[in-house]
């Protein structure tokens, strides 16, 4: 019993566990004690005073003890102490940590030397210059990021783990998609780590540690990662808020380089903010040509963006077909900020196409950009290649434009064509001044031979005149200007490869060419027959009594990728120029100026390509489709383009010929070039700009027979070749099926699986004498674990700073790691121990028995019963 009293401190607190009232226990105890006193006062007189007092005391103690135990008492003791909070260490083992970074930057090379124990970790880096040759020879060749972590954690001079253990018990974890605990007594696992986790849940891994009970929270969380978080349900902002709330700061070692050395390139003119060469500055706004002319200077604008290289040299090499046609070199220099965000350069390459280029089997130009950086001991060379199809024609494009009056579109189109050195244009106005028309170029005097408004040239004269041109542009031309025979010759001109563009007018055409109710093709006017639309004659009032309804044409879904509608090379900016279905024009400078008139049609003909439609109006039932405004199709070997509006001159507002000129240049080349260079009977066009792993993409094929008739087969097979794959792999060469697009003659679509990384080539041979191929490259998604990318330094810096309310930095590179353990503050957590001793136990029972026994023995010794 004495031992029990010794382990219960004097300041312990006694508590009751029973239901028995305290006042009743005291009353019973006092009553029982009084009864005991009365009993022993009346005991036999021969009992001495001392024995009487002793026996009475034993009985009183006994009854008081019983009364006390009725309360079911317990002694409670609290021991208040404190202990060190643990230090949690999180090591990233996701696949991105297997990336092997190039280090053309001198600071990055010194960091690698520090991690490998070749320099003093507390000494500052030299202000400039790379490590010397002897030191560099001892450096590993592009170690992985995880190998860098292993080197740092086992660095004998840094001694990070042992120094952190002095600030609190270590808890070490590795993480990817999940967090795994690691031993802190045996460290063999550290040397065997592999970066194999398929995702990084950095925020979730740290938040799990913050969800502990207040007494079990870590004093600090030390994270070793490249910062690529792509699998967390939470984000860095939420992690920082929880760190501040729970008062657990983050100490983050950023692994890797701040910017990955790479070069990206694209064809196109300079954008605001680009570093522009003098040649590109002089040719500002110049578009990428799709058609080149022999002996005419071709200017190819290019843009390229450099990341992660402080300085170096860029070599631009341009090939047309197999011939090198231009080469240029440029020295570059980037600031540290530009190395992270990238710096874009714009340049211009010029060459003169030759007749050999026009006959080349490979009608495309190829741009190769090579970036050379580093020094002789550790050179870095990066290369990227671009390809773009372009035709070379060996003479000027001859164009004849005829209209009734000098409409605004005619005026500005005339000026534009006369300025284009690749075009030889002639013009004629039916209602123009005849003296001016007979004056010679740019007018065509032969067309002034009219009798009562009808051209009086016989068939041979008209054929000789017409077939000398490649493209005929007809505006608001009256029906009776051409005889039926002349109209048939225009039809024959198109069948044999000539191009035709018709710009609809309010008064004469195409209303005058339409034959209402003529089901027999022979009864139709030849000019109406070759148009890609079916229409009725519509007469327009001199003044429309209603308010004009402005509209901006909308690209048809299948034509969104058409070069004819590409007014700027940036896809997003180009899409913003056009209208949207069901929406009125926007009031901003990002969209083309609206039009106010168009000529309605009944429907488009089979195999026609719809390029532009009206945003709200539709064709009459039963067709009931968006009203076509710009439609093209092949008629025989020639291409016919129907332009159902005459308001493109409005696009010149504040932009001059930027959009107007490019649209009409592409329209003229689209319709006129086939007569010179011939028509590609097999054309492949991808729907997506950049194939990305894990997605699928559509490729469209437009196929014509050897007689330039649309293909009618339900399916066409192609071959997909993986150039970067194993030749013995069955998937390195597989079949792809093109299926016919419903309602569009000669158009097919196939779905390509982007299930592998690397260079691919799609080859299609429909046995029409002109096979086609489409090369493309599949890349990783932007935040994929295996996608090349730098350390997320900016995000990690913000996270470390925000996790401590901006009190200190908390982000470390290799040169700062020596100070990391010292920056971690020891924190103490209160430790409370509660001890409870129940007093209604066997020892109390023995005490009661002992008291009863002692009283009985003494009474027997005194001769009492």
UniProtKB/TrEMBL annotation:
* Residue ranges of the TM segments: 20-41, 53-75
Q: Tell me yes or no: is Membrane among this UniProt entry's keywords.
A: yes
Q: Does the keyword Ribonucleoprotein apply?
A: no
> Which keywords, in A-to-Z order, does the entry hold?
Membrane, Transmembrane, Transmembrane helix
Kindly give the Gene3D superfamilies that the UniProt entry links to this protein.
3.40.50.880, von Willebrand factor, type A domain
> What name has this protein been given in UniProt?
VWFA domain-containing protein
The organism named in the record is Thermogemmata fonticola
Organism ancestry? Bacteria, Pseudomonadati, Planctomycetota, Planctomycetia, Gemmatales
